[in-house]
Design a protein that fits this description.
Elements (H helix, E strand, L loop, with lengths): L1 H13 L1 H21 L4 E8 L5 H6 L3 H10 L2 H11 L2 H11 L8 H7 E5 L5 E8 L2 H59 L8
Antiparallel strand pairs: 1-3, 2-3
């Protein structure tokens, strides 16, 4: 055993300069890598995604079927919302909004660094954005959620306008039906020479 140890010691001594150079190279390389590596910051915003109310959907005329589908299996609805949060259209809105203070921001840059993570057993989702600067990460994450909420509100307003238009048309149609029925009743009374339907 002593002979083997002596052989190894001689080999190490013989190649001491190569071993020392390799050690220094690894040490310098790891130091430079650590120095040059840019730290990344993640900002997250927790968002509540509510399932659309069955009654509000029913008003739309085309809503009852969708409402029943959502309440039987809400998962497709939430998956759709997650895709919207990580979609190009929302990223373009966010990029356009942030371009006022950061002209170099693009939709692709937003898309590549945004992620969503649903919170188990809840309607909550964490919307996260990663950036090299903490203030940029925070600003972009907040802008994503704010644009998403604004987009949803705009969509609901459009749905309500559509519902009101449908109800107005339906009310006019029902009114025409009632007037037509009243005219038919008056014509019947006149034809039958009757004062009222009760007399007949």
């Amino acid at each position: 055993a002593q002979v083997h140890l002596l052989d190894r010691a001689q080999a190490i001594y013989r190649y001491r300069y190569i071993a020392a150079a390799a050690f220094v190279a690894v040490l310098v390389g790891s130091t430079l890598y650590t120095y040059w590596q840019t730290p990344l910051y993640r900002a997250s915003v927790r968002l509540l995604i509510e399932l659309e109310d069955e009654r509000s959907l029913a008003v739309e005329g085309v809503g009852p079927t969708r409402a029943l589908e959502y309440y039987q299996d809400p998962e497709p609805y939430f998956q759709t919302q997650y895709r919207i949060l990580t979609g190009r259209e929302l990223a373009q809105h966010v990029a356009g909004r942030l371009a006022k203070t950061r002209p170099d921001v693009t939709a692709d840059a937003v898309l590549s660094r945004v992620s969503v993570e649903p919170v188990r057993a809840s309607h909550l989702v964490d919307v996260s954005f990663v950036a090299a600067a903490p203030d940029i990460a925070t600003e972009t994450a907040n802008a994503l959620v704010e644009e998403y909420v604004a987009q949803n509100l705009d969509l609901r307003r459009q749905n309500m306008a559509h519902s009101l238009a449908w109800l107005t048309d339906e009310l006019a149609r029902q009114k025409r039906l009632v007037e037509s029925s009243e005219r038919a009743m008056a014509q019947y009374r006149e034809d039958q020479n009757a004062l009222s339907l009760e007399d007949r």
